[in-house]
Amino acid sequence: MNVPPSVPPAAEPPITDAARRALAVALRGCEELLLEQDFLRKLARSEATGTPLRIKLGLDPTAPDLHLGHTVVLNKMRQLQDLGHTVIFLIGDFTAMIGDPSGRNQTRPPLTREQIERNARTYFEQASLVLDPARTEIRYNSEWSDPLGARGMIQLAAKYTLARMMERDDFTRRYRGGVPISVHELLYPLMQGYDSVALRADLELGGTDQKFNLLVGRELQKEYGQEPQCILTMPLLVGLDGVEKMSKSKGNTVGITDAPAEMFGKLMSISDDLMWTYYELLSSSSIEALARLRAECAAGRNPRDAKVQLAAEMVERFHGRSAAAAAHESFEARFARGALPQDLPEVTVAGAPLPIAQLLRQTQLVASASEAVRNIEQGGVRVDGERVSDRTLRLAAGTYVVQVGKRRAARVTVA
Predict the structure, then answer these.
(1) Is residue 315 part of a domain?
(2) Residues 89, 197: one domain?
(3) pLDDT of 27-42, one tens digit each?
(4) What is the tens place of the pLDDT at every residue in 134-164?
């Protein structure tokens, strides 16, 4: 593939207040922006020429559904989209066949073409709940990766050294630990980087675990005579357990297709401290509005009110205003009007998936296993407001509001 180089103008335009405001939008909640001054110059140039920046986000369709952790970068994309820039939602149908080794201590099994196609069907449909689909460029990296062929792959590999590839932390750990690294895994950063070349990206977004791959794209653009992209990394959203990053494999997710009441209840289960992180990374509230809300809570307002506001905003975003109102009403009917205390004790227990009777005993909501069974049989045990009738129920890793009778309850994190 012959990629035409992009040549910046000889004289850079002045940095305007509008460019600085756009930079502030990009910086909100981000972990790192490299290089900040380069991106400010790109913003000023875009303003002066009327040419939108090309902003890329690539996601491999490794699972059929998106969760709130995925939307952290999608939210940033939407903010930049609202500033008038071109956002490119790149579905990594080619790279998914390799398997992203980021953060892994063993080879990741590649997905089959059938798995990729099945998962990709819902990706953009769900991402469109955050992005404006009419202003989003959808691409698949098989468009340029498949035609590359063996000759092109060798030529691409010649542009990056093994020494630089082994600077990657997870590769280094596995090599020193004697853990196998398959040769095809070394191709993943190269192919992701080549995506930036093919798309002539000005900015690429990703989680903090993607930093190495994003930097490879920057270096490959230089090799192909293009102006290198800037990179913006976003924090990895901590899941409902308050410990691990949000991941379906950890069972601590809030899926964007979760039922409204389920989504609302899950968000109400997070800790007060984690709530502020969710606000910063997920909410469309302005920086000023968020600062006022934090100040109000610091001055004595119940943080639960702020959590209700966050949960309602998320449900409204993915299900609509009426669904958010109904979910709020359902939650209040189940918990607030059920005389549960607003500040539930928080308990963490290990052993997921944990039998419900064992959980009740470990959290001291009952005195014995027999009391747990008796309460279940009498319909006195609820998990997230739903009555438990199956004494063999096991709870996966996650956070739940567990209630025994009308007065005994706790917010329980199963690890």
Answers:
(1) yes
(2) yes
(3) 988 999 999 999 999 9
(4) 889 989 999 999 998 889 888 988 888 787 8
Residue where one domain finishes, among candidates 315, 336, 357: 336
More confident position, 219 or 101: 219
DSSP 3-state percent helix, strand, coil across the chain (nearest 5): 50, 15, 35
DSSP code at position 378: T
Asked whether the beta carbons of 414 and 359 are under 8 A apart, the reply is: yes
Describe the crossing of helices 260-268 and 321-331 by its angle, rounded to 10 degrees: 60
Q: Is the pLDDT reported for residue 303 higher than 80?
A: yes
Helix (H) or strand (E) holding 57: strand 54-59
Cis peptide before 353 (omega within 30 of 0): yes
Tell me the C-alpha distance between 373 and 338, whole Å: 22
Task: Kindly state whether residue 396 falls inside one of the protein's structural domains.
Answer: yes
- Answer whether residue 4 is part of any domain: no
Q: Are residues 403 and 298 in the same domain?
A: no
Q: Which domain holds residue 357?
A: 346-414
Regarding whether 261 and 130 lie in a shared domain, the answer is no
Q: What pLDDT score was predicted for residue 105?
A: 46
Does residue 341 sit within a domain?
Answer: no
Spatial contact of 409 and 344, defined as CB atoms under 8 Å apart: yes
- Encode burial over 200-224: b for 16+ CB neighbours within 10 A, e otherwise: bbbbbbbbebbbbbbbbbbebbeeb
Region 160-180 average pLDDT: 79
For residue 363, count other CB atoms closer than 10 A to its CB: 19
Q: How far is CA 16 from CA 37, 43, 257, in A?
A: 13, 9, 41
DSSP assignment string, 77-145: HHHHHHTT-EEEEEE-TTGGGT---TT-SSPPPPPPHHHHHHHHHHHHHHHTTTS-GGGEEEEETHHHH
Domain with 58 in it: what CATH number? 3.40.50.620
